[in-house]
Nitric oxide reductase, NorC subunit apoprotein (Hydrogenobacter hydrogenophilus), 224 residues
Amino acid sequence: MNVGWLEVVLITLLISVVVSLVLARGRHWLEPGFWKVAAVITSSVMTITLVLLTVDTSRKISMGSKRVPSPSVINREIGYVYSPDRRAMVPTLGKEVGLFGKVWSEEEAEKLITKGKLVIQSRNCMDCHTLLGNGAYYAPDLTKAWLDPKWEKQLIPMTGANTKEEAMKAFLMNPDKYPTWVRRMPNLRLSEDEAVAVVAYLKWMSAIDTNGFPANFPEVKVSQ
Ligand code: HEC
């Protein structure tokens, strides 16, 4: 059975009512004691439900789970297609293509992504951007930035780079030099290593299944 929010609410309510009625049996419903038992049982059942939901959520949002890929996904081609069953765009994985001309081991990829996250935190990118919907709305959401067709269409020609990752790196190191929008991104003086790490982080993030958030990204097909 697929347990969704409705099932969780109904099961929690049912258990609370049944256990309360059993433990408060013999008492009239107008007695304060009846409601005292009901309050204690309901609070306890709700606490257990919240703990179970928290454990379930932590499992689902950890790296290597169904929706959040493990770091080495940065080596794969990442597609984005519409799933009629899910009624949302979902990431798909294609063949191994590497990143910056190299295939990263699981440990190397994890280190790189962690560095990318720290660079993003150190520069407060969320003052302007959102990541997974968190942050500010001055500049585009970066959750699926890797899949933005603008890297191939605009930035590769503008920067003269050979690959999408090189174009993204060039933009991140000199965003003032390669403007593509009405608002400009300031030069945050990212070193080459820092820009590479941010590209890896953004590529990894684009492979997270976010139920199609944010909207309006075109389909990207990959060779399986
Ligand atoms: C002062 C606001 C501001 C800050 C801080 C900022 N950006 Fe930006 N960023 C922008 C704007 C504006 C754009 C659009 C610029 C353009 O397209 O020429 C942009 C564009 C981007 C893009 C391209 C997104 C796309 O799909 O079009 C990426 C990637 C990006 N920023 C990453 C970062 C990272 C990483 C940081 C932190 C290291 C950062 N930005 C910090 C304002 C900001």
In short: Residues 5-60 form one domain. The mean pLDDT is 95.
